[in-house]
Design a protein that fits this description.
Largest sheet: 3 strands, mixed
Radius of gyration: 22 Å
Number of strands: 11
Shape: globular
Strand order of the largest sheet: 10-1-11
Low-confidence stretches: 11-52, 270-286
Structural class: alpha+beta
Length: 286
C-alpha cells in the first residue's frame, strides 16, 4: 500500500478511536469493503479479512509488450462487450467535437523511444491492474470499490457509487474513468460477467480483450497458480509490475520487449540497439 495513504488512514483511525482505547483499532468488516467512516488498521488495507489472509487465487492479465502491435483490437472489443453488458452502457459524448469524452476500460498508449535514427515505437496497453493492495478500496466512502476474495478482482458496485472520484484520485495508474452520463466510476472488470458464464464455450470464457488480440499479446489466468500459463510466462520471460515503488502489488504483469537489431546495421548501431555485433554479421568488420 502507498505509504502516504497508510499514514493518512492510520492518523484518521487514531483520531476517531475512543480516548480509552486508541491503541486497539477495530478490524474491517467481514466482507472486506469498509468505508471512510470505518476505523481501520493500516495493515489490513486492501486485504479482506486481515493481514494474515492471503488470497489463494488472483486472476490477472499478462501483457507481452514484445508482440503488441498497437492495433487497438483489445480496446474496441472491450468497449463493445462492456457497453452492452452488465457494466454498460459506457457513454461517449461529443466524439468529434472540441471536448470529446469517452469511457474506456482499456487504452493503448503508444510512444517513441530512442534517438533518430535508432527509434523504437512502443505500444503500452493499460487497464486496472487489480492490485493485491488496491489504494482505491479504502478511500471509497460508501464501500462501492471492493476486492473480491474468491478471485482477487477489483470491482465497483454502481448502486453504491456516488461519483466522488476519490478512488480515481488514489489510483496511481489512472485506471479509472468516470461515466459522464451515469456519474459513476468505471473500470476493467476482467469481464467477470463473461469468464464465469457457463453458457459460453470454454474457449470464450476469457476477457474480451484476450479473445480479440490477433498476436496473442494478452494472457489471462491465475498468477497465484505456479503452473498456470501466466505464471510460467512471468517466470520464464522476466515479467514485471508497473510502478512497483507504489507498493500496491499489481496483479497484472508485463513481459519486457526484446529489442531486435536493424538488418544490415553497422556494428556501432547494433550495440546501440542492445545487441553486440557478431563475426559474420552484416556490417561487422570481423
Amino acid at each position: 500500500m502507498i505509504a502516504w495513504l497508510k499514514d493518512l488512514l492510520r492518523a484518521d483511525a487514531v483520531a476517531a478511536a475512543p480516548a480509552a482505547g486508541r491503541a486497539a483499532a477495530p478490524s474491517r468488516p467481514a466482507n472486506g469493503r469498509g468505508s471512510a467512516s470505518t476505523v481501520v488498521d493500516a495493515a489490513t488495507i486492501g486485504k479482506p479479512g486481515g493481514p494474515s489472509e492471503t488470497l489463494a487465487k488472483q486472476l490477472a492479465l499478462v501483457i507481452d509488450l514484445n508482440v503488441c502491435v498497437g492495433c487497438h483490437a483489445c480496446v474496441t472489443s472491450c468497449k463493445e462487450w462492456n457497453t452492452s453488458g452488465s457494466a454498460g452502457p459506457l457513454v461517449d459524448q461529443n466524439a468529434y467535437g472540441a471536448n470529446p469524452t469517452g469511457t474506456f476500460f482499456n487504452r493503448v498508449q503508444s510512444f517513441e523511444a530512442g534517438s533518430f535514427p535508432n527509434t523504437d515505437t512502443i505500444h503500452f496497453p493499460k487497464s486496472c491492474l487489480h492490485c493485491e493492495e488496491p489504494p482505491c478500496v479504502p478511500v471509497c466512502p460508501t464501500g462501492a470499490s471492493y476486492k473480491r476474495k474468491e478471485d482477487g478482482i477489483v470491482l465497483v458496485d454502481y448502486d453504491k457509487c456516488i461519483g466522488c472520484k476519490y478512488c480515481a484520485w488514489a489510483c496511481p495508474y489512472g485506471a479509472r474513468e468516470i461515466d459522464e452520463a451515469r456519474q459513476v466510476m468505471t473500470k476493467c472488470t476482467l469481464c467477470v460477467d463473461r469468464i464465469y458464464d457457463e453458457s459460453m464455450a470454454p474457449n470464450d470464457r476469457r476477457p474480451a480483450c484476450v479473445k480479440a488480440c490477433p498476436t496473442g499479446a494478452r494472457l489471462f489466468g491465475d498468477v497465484k497458480d505456479p503452473d498456470s500459463e501466466v505464471s510460467r510466462a512471468i517466470r520464464e520471460r522476466g515479467g514485471y509490475s508497473l510502478m512497483p515503488e507504489w507498493d500496491t502489488k499489481p496483479a497484472n504483469q508485463y513481459l519486457p520487449r526484446r529489442v531486435t537489431p536493424i538488418a544490415g546495421a553497422p556494428p556501432q548501431e547494433r550495440r546501440d540497439l542492445g545487441e553486440p555485433a557478431k563475426p559474420g554479421d552484416a556490417g561487422s568488420l570481423a
